Amino acid sequence: MESILDGTWGSGAAPSEWVDFLLMRRMHWSWAELQETPGYVRRYCADFLGLIAEQEQAERQRAHAAQAHHMTG
Length: 73
Hints:
Blueprint: H1 2-5, H2 16-27, H3 31-36, H4 39-72
Helix pairs in contact: 2-4
């Protein structure tokens, strides 16, 4: 799991256990709720959460770049 967290995962899609963990954590689902959720809904939710995470990362990078530019300018 360290390779997923540090961004060095290179083996294709993340393990299903990791996706399940993220869904449960971010959607505030119990294990039973996760299991009762149809697979296509779980995939959509995981995809949307991934898009949100990418957008948040891009925003952090822009803010960091703007701050660095402000400090040197």
